Structures are given as structure tokens and as C-alpha cells.
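Support reply, case 0932

Customer input (verbatim):
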Amino acid sequence: MLKRFRGDLHIHTCLSPCADLTMSPKRVVEKAVKENLDMIAICDHNSAENVGAAMAAAANKKITVLPGMEVTTVEEVHIIALFDELHQVLDLQRIVYEHLPPEENREDIFGEQIVANEFDDVEGYNNRLLMAATQLTLEKWVDEIHTLGGLVIAAHIDREAYNSIIGQLGFIPPDLELDALEISSHTSPSHALERYPGIEEFPLISSSDAHYLQDIGKATSSFLLDAPGVDEIRKAFKKQDGRNLLIEQPIMEA
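Our regenerated output:
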């Protein structure tokens, strides 16, 4: 029997240098539970080293954590990759690491990149330059993610100054096999459809892109699914077997 599942599918942790240090995997999960979310996706910049900890922190709670990543293409476009299994996102991480520049992170400029466990203990620091663009093209990353079994969502298309596909390219390539587009809490679906003609061809989700605990759940999407998961979400995007996407109105920001 299909049920309604509410999700925030783009949340950062303290591994992302631009995220607040309070965004530990444990605290992210706890805040998501308080917001009555059924599923969340951990999507740090060019890394998935805190995904396993978030999944472990959610093991005995009524919430599903989907493995994810926010990948930066060579065009400096941000895309979201979502998976069902941890090993899939770790396979993607291996490929991403192979195509990051050799420079190390500058904590004094970009911030710390903290790897934490499910108990809020610091396990270490990632020294890679996670904020950098990778050396592969947008089209190549879409292919890589699909090959690994994931979904590809163009991130925060309404935030043109924040590495959105529209901000970087000026358009969405017609042959690019994106699974969906994401809008942020800064706009509504109706405003996005009015502002960006042509996006009605894609499923449109709303996510918080939370970098601070208080932002988790600020923008969400609801789905009719058999269970929370990427394969089910894929069916919802395609409106298969009764699955469907029910976007919610975000809390508008100034």
C-alpha cells in the first residue's frame, strides 16, 4: 500500500567546509526527526565520508537516510547524486577523488572539513579541496552516477549565483538526462515555473540545502511511495505504478 513520505533530500554535514560545525551526522538526524521528516539525504560537497555515520545514527529511529553527494562538475555546476546503498555513493566518492585537483583544503579560507561518527566524535579531517570543481564534465558525471544506479538532480536551479546549472550555463542542455530539478527555500514551484520556461519538462523537488541545523526541513517534498528509497523515488519521478511526487511550498526567505 502506497504511503506519503516527506523528505528533505539535500542536507550538508560538518564535512562540507561551508556548513556549520554543529552539523554533525548525529545532530542532523536528530533535527530531522524533530521536523517529522520520513527521509533525508546527506549531500556533502564532493565527498560522502559522513554518510555512513548519519545512516548509523538513524538506525533505531523512524527515518531513512539516503546516501548522497553534491558533485561539482568542471563547468562548476552543482548536481545532487542520490543512492539506495552506501557502497554506491562510496564508489562515486572514489571517482570524485580521482578527479579533484591536487591542492589541499585551506581551513583558514574555506573552513574545516570534519569527519565524524554517529556518536558525535571527531574521527578526523578531510584535507582534500572539496569546494573545488572536479575535472569531469556535467554530461560525464550524469553518466557515471546513472551507471552506479543513482539519481541525478540539478541543484538549487533558482540560486544562479551558487553554481546552479542555469547560472553557470544559462540553460539546461536538451539532451542531458537529468532525473529532476531542485529549487531552494528561496522560491516556490509556481515562481520557478514562471521564471524558467521549459523546466516543466522535469520533476521539480524542493530541498533545504541546509548548512545549519535550523534550516533542516525548511523546504521539503512529499512522495507517494511503497517505501522510502531511490528506486521508489525514481518511479515517482516517472509516475509509475501509482508513485508520485507531491512538492510542498517552501518557507519563503527574504
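We compared this against your earlier run and they match. Two observations from our side: The domain at 3-247 is CATH 3.20.20.140 (TIM Barrel). The chain has one domain: 3-247. Please reopen the case if you see a mismatch on your end.
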